[in-house]
Thiamine-phosphate synthase
Amino acid sequence: MIADLSLYLVTDPGLCGERGVVETVRLAIDGGVRIVQLRDKIATDAETADQLVELSRVIDGRAILLVNDRVDAALAARARGARVDGVHLGQGDASVLRARERLGAEAIIGLTANTPDHFDAVAALPAGVVDYLGVGVIRPTDTKPDHPPVLGIDGFRSLVDTCALPCVAIGGVDIDDTERLRDAGAAGLAVVSAICAAVDPKQTAQSFLRRWRASGTPRVLSIAGSDPSGGAGIQADLKSIAANGGYGMAALTALTAQNTVGVRAVHVPPAEFLREQLDAISDDIVIDAVKIGMLANADVIRAVSDWLDAMRPPIVVLDPVMVATSGDRLLDREAEVALRGLLERAHVVTPNLAELAALADHPIDGWDDALAAAAALSDRVGAAVLVKGGHLDGDDVPDAVIDAADGVSRGYPGARIATRNTHGTGCSLSSALATRLARGESLTDAVASARSWLRESLTESDALHVGRGHGPINHFGGLWRRGGLETTPDRARLRDQWWERIAHLRADIDELPFVGALADGTLDREWFLFYLRQDALYLREYARVLAEASRLAPSPHEQAFWAESAHGAIAGELELHASWLTPGAGVEAETFAADPAPATVAYLDHLRSVAFGADYAELIAAVLPCFWLYTDLGTRLHAGAFGEYARDPQHPYASWLATYADPAFEAATEQAVGYVMDAAAQSDAPRRRRMLRAFEVSSAHELAFFAAPALHVPAG
Ligand SMILES: Nc1ncnc2c1ncn2[C@@H]1O[C@H](COP(=O)(O)OP(=O)(O)OP(=O)(O)O)[C@@H](O)[C@H]1O
Ligand SMILES: Cc1ncc(CO)c(N)n1
Ligand SMILES: [Mg+2]
């Protein structure tokens, strides 16, 4: 069994001073220590056995208790009913093989190893003889005057690098070594004076653990049922653990045939097989936190309870699952009684209101009643209680966490999020909480972080469209939106998304009097000339912006495309203008003589600000509407979407219509759209958002540009 080695207290009677070893151990365990080694080189075996009996009483199953070297004392204390899990042996102490033989297969036996030869000797031992190694000293220490040569953290790393056993660092370990030792491969920190000599061993232990937990990826085990629809059970747990920064593992208690509408059937494999799964994991992997969900029946509960007693994981969050969101039962009545025995083994219990009523044995009438019942339950079982308000009526869905032992009590108000997708909210919240605690967050902070993530996952859930009943939350929705985990989005989906984003602007353009009159040929000539004069001023600057896109282009073919487009804006489209504005006369004379209208100024200022203040991706997004909107409008006009007359070669504005319905312009538009979607797909979410915004603003300027003639030219 691999116990939780993260913070390993080795006692020293001298350093514990007047407070004494037993009181120091009690305080350290209150602070989160989960493995203790009684080390006293002077006491007799009988005295050591007495201390072990006393320590076993104080520890009360909350931590692993080992003794240094004294196998006889361990056996004597066991004979007196003490729980002594094993021994730690030095190189010169009793043989590990003999100790294993005398203490049994379930015992935990540690061995000191400080040199390559020691590690070679360990590698030659049969499997299962030694459970972990103590490797040091990290720096000089007074607690072991005859200590071996100082390894330092690099020396530690080189020794443990290829070792299959978990190795704890020992000897002069300071809290500021935490991150570097974990990074160097330590399975935990064995500390002596840092805690024994501490003014406040509980607070010191808490500080060590916070640093240790925050410095790595927590390995979180879900012990729960399977929900094939993915919204609850171990499926939801694994997603929740990953979304909150943990590595998720899962041992299955039951298989359900369920979906978002309800539970059709439940199959519970033999509880012995669950224990096999649990042992397979804990024999190999250090577990930083456990989340317990659906337990199905009393046999399963007993199997989990026995394993917890043997393993004593540092963090246990118990979600007392009794009924699914659909209302179907997930725990039989006999098991509800057995569940109570499990509560004492949890650090946090997370009942919803119905589950709280069942566990507190009295009906819950409103939120204040729930808070009182949660406080009483916490006081009775010694675990913190996170009572969840999701099933309250009305618009408020508060939660609250109460830890009677630590005097913690905090409410978390929250408005109900309008969604049906609440399947698995409880499973997900408790798994997120276990992960956050394993990352070193305090109880109240971890609840706040888990809730915040859950609420974001509820808000993002409508995008999933899973099932006809209560759908699942979107476990990674927030991360995808913030660009943390988004896979490269599908270009076609992006294109549709962008085009849809400006649907309202496109509809407004279609509704403009200018467009309607252009289509049916009644457009006032002065309006059209006003539009053309402004468009000439626009195109001259637009060409410069396209030239800038060419300059910034990341590839030759994009560079060529934007350069050709710049040329087209000055040459091709201005030929159109010249034929209208000054037939035969010098194009410059008349074409650019108009004062730029406000809409023209605003649009060009926008383009310049993007061209010379942002990056290539945003720039080509900003110029895209001038391609895409015009091609769309021109092809629809030419296709008769606004009436057949627009297709008539005799139409008074036929040359304008032909320009924007030109297949070559349509092809250029498709190429421009392709470059922009490529850039968007390869960008992170923040840049994708900036690109879309630049595209949207340009589209709004296009609308204002088409609307300008009606504002500035009295209808003829
Ligand atoms: N519509 C909602 N809006 C906001 N928060 C919600 C909503 N529904 C549930 N929650 C929150 O989800 C979490 C789970 O609460 P709930 O009461 O649903 O647990 P549960 O019944 O155990 O869920 P499950 O059905 O997964 O077992 C709580 O934090 C609760 O406040
Ligand atoms: C397997 C499983 N566990 C828990 C729940 C609670 O919602 C569920 N519906 N299914
Ligand atoms: Mg629940």
